Amino acid sequence: MNFKQYMEESSRTCPRLEFNYTSEFLDQLHMVIGASTETNELLDAYKKRFAYGKRIDFVNVEEEIFDALWYLANLCRMLDIDIEKGFDKNIAKLRQRYPDKFKQSEAINRNLDKERKILEQ
Questions:
Q1: d(CA 81, CA 91)
Q2: How far is residue 37 CA from its own chain's centroid?
Q3: What is the pTM of this model?
Q4: Which residues, 6 or more positions from 32, have their beta carbon under 8 angstroms from its beta carbon?
Q5: What is the pLDDT of residue 19?
Q6: Closest CA to 36 of 77, 13, 68, 12
Q7: CA 117 vs CA 57, 87, 103: distances in Å
Q8: Contact 64, 41 (CB under 8 A)
Q9: What radius of gyration do the chain's Cα atoms show?
Q10: What is the spatial distance between Cα 103 and Cα 121, in angstroms, rounded to a whole number?
Q11: pLDDT, tens digit, for every residue of 73-89?
Q12: What is the pLDDT of residues 22-32, one digit of tens each?
């Protein structure tokens, strides 16, 4: 298959998205995209060390962490998520998954039903 054929075939399953979203949804989407962008900038700082041997600019690393956190904090506010309750649920989930400490076998063999029940509280 050549690239022109591939483009034609792939267009069959490419949706045409409608843009009739609420401003509330668009604000949330902005926060999700922004958080992703900032975490990718953080990833890039480490890629430069890994791939090119460059020194990590930890001032920039800190900046990207808090840029991402800004987006996530605003998303929590928009979704009325209690961030401190979220901290508690996250730790409870991790205690369920890793009762003692991280073990690869426990990461692979997770009890998703128990974890979900913790997150739904």
A1: 16
A2: 10
A3: 0.82
A4: 71, 75
A5: 84
A6: 68
A7: 40, 15, 22
A8: yes
A9: 20
A10: 25
A11: 999 999 999 999 999 99
A12: 999 999 999 99
